[in-house]
Amino acid sequence: AIAQGLEAVAELPDPIGDVLADWTRPNGLRIQRVRVPLGVVGVIFESRPNVTADAAALCLKAGNACILRCGSESFRSSTAIAAAVGHGLKKAGLPRSAVQLVPTRDRAAVGELLGLTEFVDVVIPRGGKSLTARVAADSRIPVLWHLDGINHTYVHEAADPEMARRVVYNAKMRRTGVCGATETLLIDRSVAGTMLRPILDDLIEAGCEIRGDTAVQAIDPRVLAASDDDWDTEYLDAILSVKTVDGLDAAIEHINLHGSHHTDSIVTADAAATEAFLARVDSAIVLVNASTQFADGGEFGMGAEIGIATGRLHARGPVGTEQLTSTKYLVRGTGQTRP
């Protein structure tokens, strides 16, 4: 799968040099805005060794060099993958130093990397809250944020019951430990009595623990009481918090207050509710009638991703080759001077 990801990235169009805008001023100056590499990208990650290959491929495709710092859990696997990448670079006639893996498990190396302002242009943390918090506190280099995935699936009163059942199950249980997994289910109070029980039956039968508000507990006695903290928790496990809401406005308010601006979905057949949800939910990825587990660069046709950016500057959503570029302006004249 890792090799297939590399092949998918290789087949993507080269983003460098793309002309994003082209116009001519009244004085004859022709101005173009084009894509250029970011430069040297530092990627700090933890336990998933596939990030070694994904980050290397995406950075190289976008014309960047990268310095990778993995966690101790993936050190040996990442070292082997980085060696394979190095072999490929040499074979292709590219600089071996274009992809470097920090060759130590010492945590002090993270602090060292975060201070290399002269050599590193941007840092991307890929991991849990503690890693992200450390990078936020210590980095002297611009950071492309990848925060936690407190994601919601909202079953609107106009949802198709069978579709809601399928989407919610997949959004929670396909893989519970990924950042695109749904952690909170919201359902309109008006349909909870009829739609919720089959959804909960599927989840509980698959081994999912349900933590709900009093209305949800009244529908199913197997549901545990949800605490205030549950609405702000990324479980990354077979645990789901479930809350009844009084309509679309209440659902959107809950998502924007308790979510992490990562990925949120609505299940509905109502066109007006769809457009309101898309416009007003302040998240990097907003879906309609689809599982939140589609929050993945590969599923977006990007070949792979370094992560899902949840900040508001430069890039938001899956970070692929285009998001690993910046822009510059090319201005062509014929001797113009400014009066």
TrEMBL record:
Record keyword Metal-binding present: no
GO biological process, one term: L-proline biosynthetic process
SUPFAM superfamilies per the UniProt record, alphabetical: ALDH-like (SSF53720)
PROSITE patterns: PROA
Domain Aldehyde dehydrogenase stretches: 28-197
GO terms of molecular function: glutamate-5-semialdehyde dehydrogenase activity
Highest taxon listed in the record's lineage: Bacteria
E.C. designation(s): 1.2.1.41
Entry keywords, A to Z: Amino-acid biosynthesis, NADP, Oxidoreductase, Proline biosynthesis
The keyword Iron-sulfur belongs to this UniProt entry's keyword annotation: no
Catalytic activity: L-glutamate 5-semialdehyde + phosphate + NADP(+) = L-glutamyl 5-phosphate + NADPH + H(+)
Pathway this chain belongs to: Amino-acid biosynthesis; L-proline biosynthesis; L-glutamate 5-semialdehyde from L-glutamate: step 2/2
InterPro entries recorded: Ald_DH/histidinol_DH, Ald_DH_C, Ald_DH_N, Aldehyde_DH_dom, G-glutamylP_reductase_CS, GPR_dom
UniProt-listed HAMAP family: ProA
Protein name as it appears in the record: glutamate-5-semialdehyde dehydrogenase
Organism of provenance: Inquilinus limosus MP06
Native organism taxonomy: Bacteria, Pseudomonadati, Pseudomonadota, Alphaproteobacteria, Rhodospirillales
Gene: proA
